[in-house]
Design brief:
Keywords: Dioxygenase, Iron, Metal-binding, Oxidoreductase. GO terms for molecular function: ferrous iron binding; oxidoreductase activity, acting on single donors with incorporation of molecular oxygen, incorporation of two atoms of oxygen. A hairpin with a 6-residue loop joins β10 (166-169) and β11. 18% of the residues lie in helices and 35% in strands. The chain is α+β, with helices and mostly antiparallel strands. The longest helix has 18 residues, at 4-21. It has helices at 4-21, 25-40, and strands at 59-65, 72-78, 86-87, 93-99, 101-109, 116-125, 129-132, 139-144, 151-157, 166-169, 176-179. α1 runs antiparallel to α2 (25-40). It has a single domain, classed as Sandwich (Jelly Rolls), CATH 2.60.120.10. It binds fe (ii) ion. Fe (ii) ion binds at residues 87, 89, 132, 140, 142.
Amino acid sequence: MQNLTRLKTFIQEFTRLVDRIGDDEQAIFVSGKSLLQDLVLHDDWLPEDFAKADLNRYQQYLLHCDPLERFSIASFVWGPGQCTPIHDHTVWGMVGVMRGGELCEEFCVDDSTGLIVAEGKHLLEIGGVDLVSPQVGDIHRVSNSFNDQVSISIHIYGANIGIVNRHTYDLDTGNKQLFVSGYSNPSLPNVWG
Ligand SMILES: [Fe+2]
């Protein structure tokens, strides 16, 4: 039995946070990071339909979108060895690992050549939270760090991320392509009883 109250409480707390501090990214990171960390450290609430891996590609399930589209919450489910393209977000985002683990590789654009340059990489384990935005670093590639198990992370973004115009990047040429992610699911979890 899933403890959907945990997700409902998180939605309510995050809504209060955004009501209180608006789009002050740094303040959202400071307060929101601990809320997300607490959520992903209690793996008893995500319904199975939003935790299913797909053989072909990672899944991006919308769990909640703020009615004013000030933020959205999604579960990302990575099959063994799956990864994203190199991509940006254009808005603030937080990534918290709930099952398995993820390899996060950061990139930047070299203004003189237009090429994509690797900046660093790190492993994110259960309870780890990563931050992205145009201010703190916005281009990365995320992979399941396991080849033999599913990994799941919970993401929050400062917009309805599924409809945001974003970009993917080609590592060899620096070529930048428009990208709108959409969502993998047609319906949302019912947290309201
Ligand atoms: Fe990302």
